[in-house]
Automatic annotation (TrEMBL):
Signal peptide: none annotated. The lineage of its organism: Bacteria, Pseudomonadati, Bacteroidota, Flavobacteriia, Flavobacteriales. One of its GO terms (biological process) is regulation of DNA-templated transcription. This is LuxR family two component transcriptional regulator. GO terms for molecular function: DNA binding. Keywords: DNA-binding, Phosphoprotein.
Length: 213
């Protein structure tokens, strides 16, 4: 890695201290020479990357101050050599591709067995990436079906327009007035957008628009 004595510096970013400590136990079990930098928010994770020579970042997907999807490009800009593994309880089938596309080098479910977590970390150390069988299948399918890689392709022009308005902070009534349609029409379109993108809140919608536009 980046140190002469081969010490590996990990960033463990999760808003639950027990999860971070659990990873420390696994790192100790692997018998690595390592240093662990802890972060409980996205802001602290960014500060840690700026002030420490992080080799591998193990980051949760969701924090009280947002989703890590929003900071992955910034982390890579600060430290282009950093390797990032998303370690989260969110559905890998639904979310893994967007994190890989945003710059993550691996994605692992928190529901994984301890041996799988060890294997994933060891692969991150040896190869700089960890692609699980689930994510591998998603990547292959995304080549065959580009809509998986870019979910915005599944939206109609009208749906995309309304999605952008929501992302700009407009409400149902404002959107209805601008487009000269009924308010319940806008609500129906919003529901359809969320179903197609497999999301349930505006924050996720903003993240997808940032990533794919």
């Amino acid at each position: 890695m980046s140190f002469p004595d081969k010490k590996i510096t990990f960033l463990l970013a999760d808003d639950h201290s027990l999860m971070r400590q659990g990873i420390v136990f696994i790192l100790e079990d692997i018998e690595l020479d390592f240093e662990a930098v802890h972060a409980s928010t996205l802001q602290k994770a960014l500060e840690a990357v700026k002030s420490n020579p992080i080799d591998i970042a193990i980051i949760d997907a969701h924090f009280p101050d947002g989703t890590s999807l929003s900071i992955l490009p910034e982390i890579k800009t600060i430290n282009p050599d950093i390797k990032i593994m998303i370690f989260s309880g969110i559905d890998e089938n639904v979310h893994a591709l967007k994190y890989i596309n945003a710059g993550a080098n691996g994605f692992l479910s928190k529901l994984s067995e301890e041996d799988d977590v060890k294997n994933a970390i060891q692969r991150m150390i040896q190869f700089g990436e960890y692609i699980s069988p689930v994510t591998q299948a998603l990547l292959i399918n995304s080549v065959r079906n580009p809509k998986l890689a870019n979910p915005l392709l599944s939206l109609t022009e009208k749906e995309l327009t309304i999605a952008k308005m929501y992302a700009e902070g407009l409400g149902n009534l404002e959107i209805a007035n601008k487009l000269e349609v009924k308010q319940n029409t806008v609500s129906t379109v919003k529901k359809r957008i969320f179903e197609k993108l497999k999301i349930d809140n505006i924050v996720d919608l903003i993240d997808i628009l940032k990533e794919h536009q």
